[in-house]
Structure prediction request, 211 residues.
Amino acid sequence: MILLCDPRVAAVPGADDGEPLIDLRQVPELRLDGRAADAAAAYARLRKGVVDRLLTAQNALPDGLHLLVIEGYRPYQAQLDIFTGYHDELRRSHPEWSPERVYEETTKFVSPVEVAPHSTGGAVDLTLCTGDGTELDMGTAVDATPEASRNACFTAAPTISAVARRHRRILVGALTGAGLVNYPTEWWHWSYGDRYWALLTGAPHTRYGPV
Prediction:
């Protein structure tokens, strides 16, 4: 499992092709949830290439199922606040852990700002829902921490139910087929064009840099 703290992620050469951020509120084919909404509506924005791939993934889903987007673009300061908050929480909860372990465990749930996929507009948190908006059982809630879920938030977690495992396979199949990559400690987190995507796919550089 490659974590976002892996030096190979930061070593990927950065580039940005200038692709615009698209407001998902103007894309009726994709469903957008408001739980992560912010005053500037950053949560609703994604790079055009990601939106195109989500539309492809949506079309690959079984009849009656839909992607439900929770959060897209996340500004630098918001990313830093989340990272710092979870890092401090783990440090207080586990005084026996070394600083290195606290940092590594933090990155299982939130990316260091230097390589953060969300801050490029290339990452999206999402789940599956039915036509009436009912969310499918995915084994954990979106944004469940490894600590709270006992690692059930890991995409390949063996401890979730057969139903949740089937739903995750549907999500993985559609999004992988559309060209996105998953962060394996968060079943809901997918990206394209960022450093993590470039490392996993062998791309020579990123398509998107920080916005």
About this structure: The chain has a mean pLDDT of 98. Strands lie at 21-23, 31-32, 45-47, 65-71, 123-130, 181-182, 189-191. The CA atoms of residues 40 and 126 lie 20 Å apart.
